[in-house]
Write the structure tokens for this entry.
Amino acid sequence: MGEHGIEQGVTAAQGFAAAAVQCGIKEGSTKPDLTVVLSDRPANVAAVFTQNRAAAAPVILSRERANNGRATAVVANSGNANACTGPQGLQDARDMSAAVAQRFGLSDDDVLVLSTGVIGVPLPMPKILHGIDRLEPSADAGLDFAHAIMTTDTRQKVYAVEREIGGVNVRIGGAAKGSGMIHPNMATLLGVITTDAQVEPQFLHSSLKSAVDLTFNMISIDGDTSTNDAVLVLANGAAGGTLIGEGTAGAELFSRALLDVCTTLAKEIVRDGEGAHCLIEIRVTGAHSGSDARQIARSISASALVKTAVFGADPNWGRVLCAAGYSGGELDPDRATLHLDDICLLRLGTGMPYDRSRATELLRQPLVTFSLDLGLGDGAAVAWGCDMSYDYVRINAEYTT
Amino acid sequence: MGEHGIEQGVTAAQGFAAAAVQCGIKEGSTKPDLTVVLSDRPANVAAVFTQNRAAAAPVILSRERANNGRATAVVANSGNANACTGPQGLQDARDMSAAVAQRFGLSDDDVLVLSTGVIGVPLPMPKILHGIDRLEPSADAGLDFAHAIMTTDTRQKVYAVEREIGGVNVRIGGAAKGSGMIHPNMATLLGVITTDAQVEPQFLHSSLKSAVDLTFNMISIDGDTSTNDAVLVLANGAAGGTLIGEGTAGAELFSRALLDVCTTLAKEIVRDGEGAHCLIEIRVTGAHSGSDARQIARSISASALVKTAVFGADPNWGRVLCAAGYSGGELDPDRATLHLDDICLLRLGTGMPYDRSRATELLRQPLVTFSLDLGLGDGAAVAWGCDMSYDYVRINAEYTT
């Protein structure tokens, strides 16, 4: 492990290197906008993509390739989503991957492509191809990768963990980008995770799917995804150890570690939501079912009225219950109990007296927690959102121009 | 007809009178907040209510009573939604209706109740009961009714039409309140419509349901309704003429006139959306089905990214296609053609060159029209939204306090 810094995210695990350059995709921007992460050997890959019917060209290409279960490199650009770009867009995504394959001695099929940025504008391919020629991978460039995929994000989002699994130390690390309000229909979410664990492809996929459902999907409403959303994990096995698969000794540990990485990255995305001042955690218990709990938690976290109330430090708990009420999940207001942190606002349908100035104070903290018990069953879920401020409007009104 | 002004909305039709007082429900407010509209004879009634599971007490009460098909009066208050107020809330709604019944010599069941405002706070019943005592109905108070139901609305919304149906002149008029961004989960929508036509109760209901689906439901996403949304129509038959019912000569004319009233009121609500500068009309054609067209049109009109792009006068058409893509309706980007007014932005999946400064100019007009043809079938729909500005955040961050 040695020289690899765990703080590097996608290059924390052994055998992974990254590189990033600024190739000028977005006029006037000086940040790096083209990046690659690659493994020194073929890796197993699992991926989850947007359900949007206008899926971007790189999504169409990468979805097909990830289905093979193997990949060696991921190339990503920001500043242009290569979405709604027709047949030319698909060709451009292929050409991007071919250029990366050629530069690093891989076959085209080993390269996945991710893009994020403005929709409907053709990729400036000469700039991108020239940029690919200049990529010089190193194990210290994980933060550069995280920087290059940013759009309106204000900071890099990286995280990695180290665990002893199957007799060896393995690392799982990743980078993510969010920006946007994330929900209901906001900016692209990208997550790239790498690990040096040896993981059987099908198990890698089911682990990722479970983790994404509890994390990235709890900050982004199903079906309300951007044209480019993608989360993927590459497992290159460089740490050695026994193969991790369904039912093996290390399975549980690996899944939990992957969930840790996804949880941290997902919460970082929300914390850095456009114009956000705080992270709002919505804890739902006592729901009729687990899926009801998820629906209700997400509905509350996505409510513009809840988000603006928190921004205004206004303990307007009616908006929380209203959002629960239209979520589609079962709700009986007379059985509902709601807390803001440790302040009980509502008990079994009746509003409670509370210290308003303390509630206001709690709403001004960096983490605001609402706990809603529905009193109907055992379903539980947690979702995350952020407050909604003037800056959200400013950022999104000025995005392309 | 004579003395009745058609500009009075709910009192445009014969036999209807209204009254409004300021009873002080919301501290510091000086606008009228309690109002009644009543017919000089029993009327047939049809109503459509919120699907929210946390339906407010007045909704629970009025839904039950409207099922009888008869009503004589509607009492409404603003400043307090009487929602999430438990058994006491239901008792308060009953007491409100009983006081109105007593004051005007009606039976309790003849009185429907509507409330809008803050959720989770008990109604100040002494103030309301005292207010009811002071109501003095007149045929010239339709605008007062419209004023009294406003919350953050900036102006009254009233409209009425006069048509010759079945050999007599009939009027259909109404008042509405919206405020909020209307979607995805915004403030209460109330619509009260009165007519002096003689209309058979079942036909009245099916006419209202059809009109609401094409109008109020195209500015408010199904399931994403507030705790208090309600649209109702009272038909007192004071104009005489033959009974209008399914299959009768006047049926079509009546339905079309009711649709006119609902369309105008719905568009007025959007135009007066919190912080709105313009009305955005989304016209979808060529959809796989009518329901796909509706889903897609509403998804686009509700997209915060589309709304902020219009506010920023940014012809970012990718956001329009993205919102269509996650709507759940069928979409093939390569068959999609999009116009902003008469400017073609996208033809069969390919972005078109266009005059950017003219597009920007069009986005600054009071009416912004996007027309999306999906090239898949015959489904068509129209939805309305408004842009999203800093003021939206300000209004909603400051609402209760």
Remarks:
- Chain A has a mean pLDDT of 90.
- The radius of gyration of chain A is 22 Å.
